[in-house]
Amino acid sequence: MTAKVKIKIEDVTKVFANNAGEHQQALASVDLAVYDNEFICLLGASGCGKTTLLNLMAGFESVSSGTIFIDDKPVLKPHPQYQTIFQNYGLFPWRTVEENVEYGLEVKGVSLEERRAKAAGYIEMVGLEKFRNSHPHQLSGGMQQRVAIARALAVEPEVLFMDEPFGALDALTRFRMQDEITRIWQENKQTIVFVTHDIDEAVFLADRIVIMSPYPGRIKTILPVPMGRPRDRTDYDFIKIRDRIFNEFELTVKKELDYYI
Ligand SMILES: Nc1ncnc2c1ncn2[C@@H]1O[C@H](COP(=O)(O)OP(=O)(O)O)[C@@H](O)[C@H]1O
Ligand SMILES: [Mg+2]
């Protein structure tokens, strides 16, 4: 069985002009196929073009050359079936949790009764039933990000783009959110493109890790993570894959011991 390609990126470059009129190449000849239902992580240091590549896929930016297709159609602008979740949550502060989650359905013209019912299901999925009438400022960062996830899921998107969504959370909350997004993905089977600079997070979440390098941003290696879920961070296979990535980034320290054997 061959998996269906959901997103196809063909020879994409992106050049930005800064205020001084100088050109900066953010991406150079990027080729990538993301499969239907795949959980893919874009991993790399700050400035290697992860956000740029995600924004191009999501239709927020346009390519300088090359093409990006989703379902064989070129991406020209954002599409409601492809939802994006950002690090700063992007919630409407004047709306309650429930009203935030309903937002996408409202835009689609879904009736109040139907969107209330649908929103309730997704609020329950992220465990916020008790907070449905709260406003974002009354919630912790982790809870706000769960609202953002519920809001994105409520429109039943085929693709979820996530740009360092857990980057602002404390380590323990981040672990919980990683468990939660894994479970949600296993239940709903969307295609997820998830940007992170956290090696551990990428190994925990991804089917494949796209390792990027900077100046100009490009894909260095694509690493499959052939492990079942839920994953155990202390597992031998987990550590082996993490070590490989440390090597890719040349982060490994030559141990003194090596010189004696
Ligand atoms: N709007 C922009 N205008 C000019 N340069 C930009 C813009 N967005 C990103 N860049 C540049 O493109 C490169 C890649 O940025 P970005 O995609 O944000 O990287 P990452 O998300 O991996 O940190 C960086 O050198 C950045 O300065
Ligand atoms: Mg970024």
From TrEMBL:
**InterPro entries reported for this sequence:** AAA+_ATPase, ABC_transporter-like_ATP-bd, ABC_transporter-like_CS, ABC_transporter_ATP-bind, P-loop_NTPase
Any one Gene Ontology molecular-function term assigned to this protein's record: ATP binding
Record-annotated ABC transporter domain positions: 7-239
Task: List UniProt keywords, sorted A-Z.
Answer: ATP-binding, Nucleotide-binding, Transport
The record's annotation in PROSITE patterns points to: ABC_TRANSPORTER_1, ABC_TRANSPORTER_2
Please indicate if the UniProt record lists Electron transport as a keyword: no
Q: Which PANTHER family match?
A: ALIPHATIC SULFONATES IMPORT ATP-BINDING PROTEIN SSUB (PTHR42788:SF13), TAURINE IMPORT ATP-BINDING PROTEIN-RELATED (PTHR42788)
Supply the name of the protein: ABC transporter ATP-binding protein
UniProt source species:
Metallumcola ferriviriculae
